[in-house]
Write a structure and sequence with these properties.
Number of strands: 2
Number of domains: 1
Shape: globular
Strand order of the largest sheet: 1-2
Structural class: mainly alpha
Radius of gyration: 21 Å
Distance between the termini: 45 Å
Helix content: over 70%
């Protein structure tokens, strides 16, 4: 696919424009982001991704449009796992509800910039060394095993080295001062928790990108498609956070599904690497099959999770997601006895 310079600039400019509009429309008046508003924005961003897929179909053909759709769905599904980590980080920093949307927006912009750098590096590595697919494939297979085994592990928001470095080197305050990133206290400039939590969101997402970017490269070798799939998935991720906030702990088999998807794409990458570097006849997995596997696994794990939780609601109590929601509720001053795992309107939700 030949991507002219003007298309790169137009795409990046369009994304910047959407972010600016989001900031003006949504964050001009900080408020608690409700499910109804989140639903409208999720639909809007999914519509944008669909419109971009139609553009690719007209501009470059069905193959590249299919690669984008598969990459977008893969990236979006893998990003759902990020939402739980975002919940833990927002809880650890006790971010006021009315500021959470801005934190996620700026944090995701940071993540998108860092991911763009990784995509450039990955594309250059693939162009120079075909064996890079072996590395990517091995990484995805290892990650698939790790994700499968991490069902009951809860992430540690204190493990972000950049945040620890900033806190050691720069004067910080533990109190929020509206949306200010820095504040003058006793004649000395201090960093507020608002800046720290934005950095935490953006840099923690980079860890997930080390898995998801090779996964999208397993579906397409076009850096433009990898970048746009990541961009559209991340753009709608913060609205998805507020929409699924009360459902995260019910998707008890989500990690299993994500592990299967990562393992499948890992095998696909290894097969392509073998075919490109040896004379062995190996099967080629078409993009339509990849898309079918990804959608099928996500649908199966989601349905299985909801059925299992309906039959045994106690499974929710055992999930690390629910424990994170308890911590978030405690930070908000909600009594633990008021939390009901079976009630989607519970304060923990």
């Amino acid at each position: 696919m030949n991507v002219p310079t003007w298309l790169w600039f137009a795409t990046i400019g369009g994304l910047i424009g959407i972010i600016v509009v989001d900031l003006i429309v949504v964050d001009s008046r900080p408020h608690v982001f409700g499910p109804r508003e989140a639903t409208r924005w999720v639909i809007f961003y999914v519509f944008l991704a669909a419109a971009f897929a139609v553009f690719l179909f007209v501009y470059a053909g069905a193959t590249y449009a299919g690669q984008f759709v598969a990459g977008y769905i893969t990236e979006y599904s893998l990003s759902v796992d990020n939402l739980f980590v975002f919940l833990v980080i927002l809880s650890a920093f006790a971010v006021p509800a009315e500021y959470q949307h801005r934190v996620l927006l700026v944090g995701i912009v940071i993540a998108l910039i860092l991911r763009g750098i990784l995509i450039v590096i990955g594309a250059e590595a693939i162009a120079r060394f075909t064996g890079t697919f072996y590395v990517f494939g091995a990484l995805l297979l290892y990650t698939a095993i790790k994700v499968w085994r991490s069902q009951d592990e809860e992430p540690d928001p204190e493990g972000n080295g950049l945040i620890r470095f900033v806190e050691r080197r720069v004067p910080t305050t533990r109190e929020y001062h509206g949306t200010k990133l820095t504040v003058l206290l006793d004649g000395k400039r201090h960093v507020t928790p608002m800046l720290l939590v934005m950095l935490a969101i953006g840099t923690t997402d980079l860890l997930f990108a080390l898995d998801s970017i090779p996964a999208v490269f397993g579906l397409t070798q076009e850096a433009y498609i990898v970048f746009t799939a990541n961009a559209f998935a991340l753009m709608g991720l913060r609205q998805l956070f507020f929409l699924l906030h009360g459902l995260l702990d019910r998707l008890i088999y989500l990690n299993r599904g994500l592990a299967i998807i990562l393992g499948f794409i890992g095998v696909k990458l290894v097969l392509e690497a073998v075919g490109a570097t040896t004379s062995l006849a190996v099967p080629h997995i078409p993009i339509a099959v990849s898309l079918g596997v990804i959608v099928g696994v996500l649908a199966a794990t989601t349905i299985a999770s909801l059925i299992a939780v309906r039959r045994n609601p106690a499974l929710v109590l055992e999930s690390p997601e629910y424990q994170a929601e308890l911590e978030a509720a405690a930070e908000s001053g909600v009594a633990l006895e008021d939390l009901d795992p079976e009630d989607p309107q519970s304060p923990a939700r």
